[in-house]
Amino acid sequence: FKIDSSQKFQTILGFGGAFTEAAGYTFSGLNGDLQTQFLNAYFGPGGNNYSVCRTHINSCDFSVATYSFDDTINDFNLNDFSIEHNQQWLIPLIKQALNLSKQTNLAPLKLFATPWSPPAWMKNNNNMNGSYSPGLKQDSNYQASWALFFSKFITEFENQGIPIWGITIQNEPEYAAPYESCVFSAEQQRDFLRDFLGPQLKTDHPNVTIMIYDHNKDHVANWVQTIFSDPIAAQYAAGTAIHWYSGPQFENLETAHNLAPQKFLLASEACTCPVKINDWSAAESYGYDIIGDLQNWVIAWVDWNILLDRSGGPNHMYGSCNAPIIADLDLQILYFQPPYYYMGHFSRFIPRGAIRIYSNLLSQSIQENENENEKTTNYDIYGVSFLNTENNTIISVVMNQSGNELTYKISFKNYFAKAIIPAHSIQTLIFSADF
């Protein structure tokens, strides 16, 4: 495991998960002690130190029901815009997390927001669920109103004491999902950003970060090329958000970075489905993706729902997904799932401002001769390293996905050390860079 702190790459923003209405609803059903335990687990002293989180604009599939903040048809000026719906479950959860994070964490919590769908009256199918292509009506009145919608959302949340660090333009713009969705092509998103959303937010909220895409890694390079090659559109967006559902495809992140090296990459959603208690394979999926993303220019890795109930919901389309913490509201029990602990190996130890440095621990297959027959041994071991400039320490996260205990050698400068990692495990190593 060769580590070289002279070769530096991206600066880390942080790790976290999503505040959804499903999470807020489930949180509200916990007793006071469990609510405190839950908040501390993510945001309190000794917790996972979450510092980058996501929420949704209007409803998403992990909402109790479909809703928007303005259902008045052709209310282009959004005179009837109201976030009152979120006062019941979502806003109270976010406020408590923010307050606790301010008290205990060095890095302020950065919250970004994503729409799954505009109000039905802005869409070509006149329904928040499902989408035609394009999803958003192309008349400039609707596009301008949708851009204004973002601005009003940011203002209203800030009036609640919830600062919005960033937004993504559309969740999964290539997918006409049966739940809240709104299809954009890369060209349509480029034009909406350039002509409507970018100018609106530059005027109203110039410090809010805009991210493009927010979908799988398979097509990320095409979206980066299409949008950031337009110099006017490119000036409004700072980065690209990605999901993991099309597979690892880490090479596409390298390509996307090389196409627009001045723009960051942020992993904005991942989860496994359906809910399964104590599933360690889900944790290994997290670890593998996080290490691969971080090795390929990603600055933050954000999980999906931070809390769900025992059914993997609520979800108004009756979907079921896993979460790092699952609550049984009938028994008043919290299940801390394996992904919670794997996330912690990154979020607890890699602070905001840490810089990824060169390290080359990769999976490999070694051919061995045994009883005159060839035997292939797969060493599924992965790693990534960082320099913490605050105290000049090296932080390395190593994961062994194989069924064997492995011994590996760490090489740093002219020094070597031997380390042992058990089968199916993850470990974080911290040592001084001052040799």
Describe how the helices and strands are arranged:
Blueprint: E1 2-11, E2 14-19, H1 21-28, H2 32-43, E3 52-57, H3 90-104, E4 110-115, H4 140-159, E5 166-168, H5 186-204, E6 209-216, H6 220-228, H7 231-234, E7 239-243, H8 250-259, E8 264-269, H9 280-294, E9 298-305, E10 308-309, E11 325-328, E12 333-336, H10 338-347, E13 355-359, E14 364-370, E15 373-379, E16 381-388, E17 393-400, E18 406-412, E19 415-421, E20 425-432
Parallel strand pairs: 1-18, 2-3, 2-9, 3-4, 4-5, 5-6, 6-7, 7-8, 8-9, 10-11
Antiparallel strand pairs: 1-13, 11-12, 13-16, 14-15, 16-17, 17-20, 18-19
The strand order across the widest sheet is 2-3-4-5-6-7-8-9
User: Mind describing the biggest β-sheet?
Assistant: 8 strands, parallel, barrel
Strand percentage lies at: 25-35%
Number of helices: 10
Ranges where pLDDT stays below 50 over 5 or more residues in a row are 365-377
Q: What Rg, in angstroms, do the CA atoms define?
A: 22 Å
Please characterize this protein's 3D structure.
The chain is α/β, with parallel strands linked by helices and 435 residues long. Helix content is 28%, strand content 29%. The chain is built from ten helices and 20 strands. The strands form four sheets. Strands 2-3-4-5-6-7-8-9 form an eight-stranded parallel beta barrel, surrounded by seven helices. A seven-stranded mixed sheet has the order 19-18-1-13-16-17-20, with helices on one face. A three-stranded mixed sheet has the order 10-11-12.
